[in-house]
Q: What sequence folds into this?
C-alpha cells in the first residue's frame, strides 16, 4: 500500500514521510524479508502502470 501511494502521489508522500516513521520502517523491514524480497525482485511482480488503481495522479498530487 505504501509503495502504491508513493507511486501515485510522490509529492504528497514525500512531504508526509516524517509524520509516519514507524509505518515506513515497517514497510522497509517487510520488503527485506527473504521471501518478500525475492518476490519484489522477480518478474512475477506486476509493475505499476497507468492502467491500474496505483497510477500517477498529477492533478491530485499536492505538496500541502
A:
Amino acid at each position: 500500500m505504501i509503495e502504491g501511494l508513493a507511486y501515485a502521489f510522490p509529492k504528497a508522500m514525500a512531504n508526509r514521510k516524517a509524520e509516519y516513521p514507524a509505518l515506513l520502517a515497517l514497510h522497509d523491514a517487510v520488503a527485506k524479508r527473504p521471501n518478500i524480497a525475492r518476490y519484489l525482485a522477480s518478474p512475477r511482480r506486476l509493475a505499476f502502470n497507468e492502467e491500474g488503481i496505483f497510477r500517477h495522479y498529477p492533478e491530485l498530487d499536492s505538496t500541502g
Notes: The CA atoms of residues 30 and 36 lie 7 Å apart.
